[in-house]
Prior knowledge:
3 strands, 63% helix, mainly alpha, 3-stranded antiparallel β-sheet
Amino acid sequence: MSPVICCAIVALIAVADQLIKRAVLASSLVQGENITVISGFLELEYVENTGAAFSLFEGRTQILSVFSALVLVVGIYLLFARKIKSKVMLASVVMIMGGGLGNLIDRIIYHFVVDYIKVLFIDFPVFNFADCFITVGEFILIGYLLWDIFTDFKNSKAKKDKVKNDE
């Protein structure tokens, strides 16, 4: 897939994220207030998150902004230098970049990230649409890398066994 198309997808993810967040900000929700969407399953809760996932680096918006920007710059470099050969890895990088851009825009404009999705069936922090893309992209990337390591190990072992049997 061309780098331009990948960047367009990144932009679409960020725009969709921003549109949803604008709707949340325009709603009557106030910080910490809940609206039940599906009883016992899902609520909307407006939260101004000054940290990262699970309240890590709370109040460190500038550091998180710089880190997010660096991830985006590296991602753009990898896309345009065509360093990513695997379609799975490419999809995961695009997802991470799109979500990262959505949250970076919040950090620049508001100095916090707008979170609003609260699942009730597990004890989990409030999150947003961009976080979904970042998390799914990271899981896909980690899974792909582990699969690649496993496959390399398996192939290496098979090669050693073949050499050993040939002797």
